[in-house]
Amino acid sequence: MKLSTLAMAxxxxxxxxxxxxxxxxxxxxxxxxxxxxxQGITWTKALEEFKANHPDVTVNFExxxxxQLQASGSMILNSDQAPDVLEYNKGNATAGLVASxxxxxxxDDAYTAQGWDKILNEGQLALSRYSDVGVYGSGPIxxxxxxxxxxxAFYNIDMFEKAGLKVPTTLEExxxxxxxxxxxxxxxxxxxxxxxxxxxxxxxxxxTKADDTWVQNYQGLKAPLDTAPYLFAAQTxxxxxxxxxxxxxxxxxxxxxxxxxxxxxxxxxxxxGTWNLGNFSSSIKDFxxxxxxxxxxKYSVGSTGNLWVVPKGSKNPxxxxxxxxxxxxxxxxxxxxxxxxxxxxADAATVTNPVGQNASAVFKEIADKQGLGFYPDWPVPxxxxxxxxxxxxxxxxxxxxxxxxxxLKTTYDDAQANQ
Length: 419
Known about the structure:
419 residues; D-Maltodextrin-Binding Protein, domain 2; 2 domains; 11 strands; 49% helix; 12% strand
């Protein structure tokens, strides 16, 4: 073989090898949003565009569950099994914990380089920033949220109108509505006592007795737990069970089953989060439904949404940042709102879905009064499981309200003292 021919052959081999290497580039992405949720629908569409934009990349998506990452997130992120980018629960006990363990890449530079600073304000970054010890509100940016969320009372408008009831504006009016439904033979509140909606009802009731200092101390681990708001909430929940406002078998019910009680028209009220909007929009065909905020002086359970984070071992952080930018684009922010989600950067003039319009407007109402009280499990790692267990015990009657708050205080105060 002539030298020139040999060189050409070697060159062709190198080129082929390089092309194969480029074709072998893999980008791994995880999220746990349900496929029929506003986020799930929107992100799936965005994923198709992302793949089309990168024909030389193998894009692998894996559907995870909230429970999987809640239980094993630190272990996964500290292994070679971590993806390039993933959705992760925000808060001290989750994103804050793995950030403090050095398991995430800082997104400080990307915040300006990608133009996210033109889309998000500092208020929307409160749960993106975590200190060295994993407490939210200050420090580097470890994740980016592309939506908002809050807990509200979903209600069956037809059942309310038939009973001659109006949307309650006080806790007393809400209780009166419960009583009216119960007198008519209807159990008014669907409750997943073995799941997050139990926690969210507890926290919503606690926020009726919480001021700025209590919320800031509680979420920031700034003081031992003042149990008064939780004691009120616990006693109220026990009273609701005793009066038949909540089914006694709710202690063994998960959120999907509680949601089904609402969507099937059996329960007029279900207190849960905006992550149900997509499902309710597509599945409820037989009655009119809406939302109202659980009546509190200021605070509602809610926040910016879960975070997109980049693990320390991500092999493609540039693509991870591009993925986040795609979700923050006007196209997919509007898409999200039109799928019934709570967008934080949609052009209001382009949102045509009344569910998305209303959800975004209510979120703005809460955010404008700085009324996002955040979630009850956030301050302490492992508090999510503690609350699940203790709320179930409270509803089952194996814990009194005093015992309930005493056990919460022990767990919380130990973490507060050792931070």
